[in-house]
Every structure is written in structure tokens, then in C-alpha cells.
Amino acid sequence: MRKFGEGIEDHGNYILQYKGETLGLYGVGFLVKKRLAHNIEEFKGISERIAVLNITLPLNKAEKWTIIQAYSPTEAEKIDNVEKIEKFYEDLRIAVQYSHRNLIVMGDFNGQIGKCNNSGEEYTIGKYGQGKRTKNGDRLITFAMENKLRILNSFFKKKKSRRWTWISPNGLHKNEIDFIMSNKFKTFQDISIIHNLNFYSDHRMVRAKLTGTPIKSARRLHNDKSAIVCTGNNNQLSTNLQKLIDESNFTTMPLQANKKINESIRKDKKLKRQNTLKKHIERTGGIKKAIKELNHKKDWMLKMKTKNGNHTNKRPEILKLATDFYRKLYQSRNQTVEINERSLEPEPIPKILTEETIKAINTQKRDKATGTDQITNELLKSNIHVIAPLLTNVFNEIIETENIPTDWTKSIITLLHKKGDKGEIGNYRPISLMSN
């Protein structure tokens, strides 16, 4: 992952966590599905070659796991490169020391492990090791044995064409140099290669399937064997056969519909992008706001300074520190204001008119972020004559009953970094997004 810097980005469907120190080279990170966002405990970039993710995986039971993503230097015969490899494994050992009981170490180790040589390696390497063992492969095996890890690729039988993970630029050499290791072998159902990526890469992704992971089962087709009964009546036989054919065709309809829906979504996204670029170019002559509108990612705080001056990467601690800070900041200071009750006389509040609601909606600016209701100003304006009377009735009812809907009291607080240390909570400006 050649992304410079260090950060955590929320892209809607997934969370991207990355660490990179050299522009255009090296870098490691994780992609986590959004449904597991609340399971993330901690992300820590050790270096541009090692990153650590502590997460609770919802398997048969919720368990804490440490996943280490690694990218080993190549084994070029240079002194500085040898030092880099030694530093890499030193950092890797330190990362393992602070891991949870359940551990996965995976990545590009730039080495081949070969076959098990039956000299105490049986626990670490399975029957299906491949290639000629290299120096980096030897280092990897030593590391795995020291930490009681199994190189899982070698324990699952696959065709030779489904084992290699890297191809040389000239296409002549194909080697298995990307591995997944773990100390919980029985948790894994399978290790396989993803070979049909929709982008070019000289590496193929390695996929692990864990016990307890929801498995997509094939749709069971209705197989009514009693539908055809040989009675000697050819017409009846033909009718029943045609019925089965029609039922079989019906089962393919959802698949065809799914393909059409996906194709339609891709076209709509492309059209949305074109229209957004055109809109902002016509308005401002530039595309800066268009890129901002199309880019739906949100940056997470990577770390935060605690009361004792140390930094924490743990998500629960970061959320608690931020919550406590703003609760204290906006806490009532118990200031009392003397009010002369005699001077207060109840006055009837006039009802809100539909025209006033329409005017209020029209004053709302476009391209603004939504609150918890996810209703945009553009949506209100596009249906103003339908929505305005309904909203007017709601507003007048609130005035009469003095009861505000609970959802209207909720807001999304977004923190924008102003300047200074990003780990200092006081250097952020809170923005509250309320329902429209």
C-alpha cells in the first residue's frame, strides 16, 4: 500500500488504515468493512513495513485478535539491505510481544519457504510447501518457529496454479512469497488465492476463511423428482419436462437481475461524477468543491494525548477522552440570572404559516452536510410544496405541546483539526450536524 503518511479514513463502506514513510515506496495498512468499525480496538503503525490492528472478530464467540501486516525487504546482497531485514524482524518480534492471545501475521515476506525438511519443522510447515527455500524464507521459518506460528498456506492442498502469489515483470517466474501465519490453526477453514482482481498487480491476494465466518451457500434449487412419472403418456411427459425447464429458468432470474442492478449502479455513479464536476465548473470555474463533494471519506483521530501526557491509539480511550473534554467544556457553569417574574406576561404565539416555512427552506444553502436524518437541503427544496405544509403542522404542534421530537435533539459532532499537534484534543474545532 503505497500511501504516504499515517491515518485512518472512513470511506463509507470500509475503513482504511495506513502507514507510509517513503513517497511512492513501501507502506502497509488494512481495509476493514464498515460493519466491523466498532470492533476496532487499536491501529498502530510500527514502521512503513509493519502495522498492527487489534480488533474483536465476531466468530463463534467474540474474541480479541491481533493482526500484523508486514512487508519484508528483499534479500539483495547489500550490507544496508541485510541491516534492513534484521531491523524488520526485530520490529516484528516486538509487535508480537504486545499482541493478543489470538494472533495473525500476514503479508509479503519476499521469500520462499520450500518443503518441510522434517527437522522439527512439521508444526510450522505443512505438507504443501512450495518452491526452493531462500534466505528470506529461512528467516521467516525461524521467526514462525520462535513464536509458535504456523505458515497456513502450506497446510491446504491447492493446484500449483492456485498457489503462486507473485509474478516477475517478464512473466517467466511465479513464486509463493505472500503468507498468512497464525497460532490458532484450528480456527482456519481454508487459505486460497484471489486471482481475478479488476486491476493490475504483480501480486495475487491471499484470502483466509475463518471458522464462524458466515459462508455464502449456493441457492438450493427445487428438485421435484416426482414431477415426471413415466406413464407411457408422451404428452404428459412433455408437459412435465417443460414445467421443470421453466422452473429452472426462473431460478436464474435473480442472478440476471443482480447483474443488471450492479451495472445500473455503476452507470449512475459515473453520471453522478460527471454532473457534479460540470456543476462546480460552471459555478466556480474549478473542481476543488467537486472533489470534496465526491470524496466521502472522513478522517479518524489516529491517536490522542492522555492526561498524563502519553499518547493512546486505542479507539475506546480516544472516544472517552474526546467525550469527557467536550462534556466539561460545554457543561453548565451554574450561572443564575435574576428574573423579575412580574414583568413577564404570557403572550399568545401566532401560528407559523406555510409561506414562512417555504421561505425558511429556500434560504438554506446547497451542498451542506446532513444530520442524523440524512435529509439534504436539496431534497427539501425539490419537494418544497409537498413538504412545507407537513412541516408547518409539525412546528405548530410543537409550539402548542412544547414537546420537541427526540430525534431533533440528537446531533453528529465532527471534529475538524485547526492547527498544532493532532494528538491534542484542544486543537480541534467541533461542528454539530443537526437534523434539517
How would you sum up this structure, described in words?
The protein has a six-stranded mixed sheet, covered by helices on one side. The protein has a four-stranded antiparallel sheet with strand order 3-2-1-14, with no helix packed on it. Strands 9-10 form a two-stranded antiparallel sheet. The two termini are 39 Å apart. It folds into three domains: 206 residues, Deoxyribonuclease I, Chain A, CATH 3.60.10.10; 69 residues; 121 residues, no CATH class. It is built from eight helices and 18 strands. The chain is globular and about 95 Å long. With 436 residues, it is of the alpha+beta class. 31% of the residues lie in helices and 22% in strands.
Quick one: overall form? globular
With strands numbered from the N-terminus, the spatial order across the biggest sheet is: 4-5-6-7-11-8
Percent of residues in helical segments?
25-40%
Query: What is the level-2 CATH architecture name of the largest domain?
Result: 4-Layer Sandwich
- CATH fold field value of the largest domain: Deoxyribonuclease I, Chain A
The Rg value, from CA coordinates, equals 30 Å
What is the CATH superfamily classification of the largest domain?
Endonuclease/exonuclease/phosphatase
Q: What is the H/E string?
A: EEEEEEHEHEEEEEEHHEEEHHHHEE
The CATH class of the largest domain, by name, is Alpha Beta
Terminal-residue CA separation: 39 Å
Number of helices: 8
Largest sheet: 6 strands, mixed
